[in-house]
Amino acid sequence: MKLTTITMVTVDGVMQGLGAPDEDRRGGFERGGWVTPLWDNEAGTFLNQVYQRADAFLFGRRTYEIFAGSWGVMPDPGSNPIAAALNTRPKYVASTTLTDPRWTDTTVLSGDLATAVGDLKAKPGGELQVHGSGALIRWLLDNQLVDEITLLVCPVILGQGTRLFPDAGPDAALDLVESRSTSKGVTIQVYRPTGRPQYETATPDANT
Asked: Which of 56, 142, 196, 200 is 20 to 30 Å from 171 at the Cα level?
């Protein structure tokens, strides 16, 4: 399976507090709920299609618990394409503390995560998708386990919050696979990592 990450971010790279305004208050964050005013039918259709492509899902514990407490308890999950995908396909959680997952068809990956994710990627299928789960995404990128990155960049600057990419971290070259924008200015960008970037080096000019 191809491991893909799907993340909604602001122009300044913040991914924290996507849903309800009080969803994530870590670090004194108080600017949650920034996606909804910028969401439109085109963005929604794109995201529905992404979820329908998934063969399995991989989560960090925090995102898993948020999803389990919302999508996992919908009374009629079949009425929503995202809920239908999440409730009918295998889910994996990277956690050393979660011992009793309540969401059906959930497996906890508590041992050697790199080996476990490598084994999942070796399975036949289309996509192993990671939604949210910022700390996990950063770890996967650090370990060169990500095959494709999808960013839904919302036209807003928050000025605070947890950023997807840290100030100091590994570098990566990316190939742009797809880029388009919605009517409300959400830019959908799909990239494939291609190793490390090439850096220009200064060379002495004999004429100067």
From this structure: 56
